[in-house]
Amino acid sequence: MAVPTSYTESDFKDYLHAELGPVAQALGWEVASGQYDEPLNDALFGIGATVISGVSSDDINGFRILGKLETWRKVLHHVSGDFDFSDEGASLSRSQVHDMAIDVIEKLEESASNAGVTTNATQQVATGIVDHTENPYGTNEDT
After folding, report:
1. Is 134 helix (H, G, I), strand (E, B) or coil?
2. pLDDT tens track, the chain, 143 positions
3. How many CA atoms lie within 13 A of 17 on its CB side?
4. Helix, strand, coil share (%) of the chain residues, nearest 5
5. Cα Rg for the chain, rounded, in angstroms?
6. CA 18, CA 74: separation in Å to the nearest integer?
7. Are 72 and 104 spatial neighbours (Cβ–Cβ below 8 Å)?
């Protein structure tokens, strides 16, 4: 199989769906239901594109990593309320998908880092104290 150098939206969503495999089936996700629309958009924004035709062949690897990462983040969000249940010897372990999603996300973030792809996890935000002593309009306490 040749390495892909471009995608259509439909092909990329099919790829993401196939990457989830049986998890997609367990969640009841289908490409046509729109479950992959936002992971696609987030992956596009992550590489600086706004349409899929703007993904260059040089960006394909990062685009694929970000697509999978954003899809698994959506899975994690979707199953975050799932829990384990047992009664009279029967049990249902729904938290397994949650744990699996966390593991996959961590591995994909590492893959992204190794590939030089910036993810939400690798972005940094600076915080600090804002000094209002030179504010000519006063402060909220002055009103």
Report:
1. coil
2. 788 999 999 999 999 999 999 999 989 999 999 999 999 999 999 998 999 999 999 999 999 999 999 999 999 998 887 777 777 777 667 788 888 999 999 999 999 999 988 876 555 555 567 676 777 776 666 55
3. 17
4. 55, 5, 40
5. 21
6. 15
7. yes
Give the chain's length. Answer: 143
Residue 68: which of 102, 19, 11, 4 has the closest Cα?
Answer: 19
Please state, in angstroms and rounded to a whole number, the distance separating the CA atoms of residues 130 and 119. 28
- Cα distances (angstroms) measured from residue 73 to each of 9, 47, 127: 19, 17, 25
Of 99, 51, 49, which Cα lies nearest the Cα of 75?
Answer: 99
Pairwise CA distance, residues 69 & 46, whole Å: 11
DSSP 46-114: HTT-SSGGG--GGGHHHHHHHHHHHHHHHHHHHHTT--EEEETTEEEETHHHHHHHHHHHHHHHHHHHH
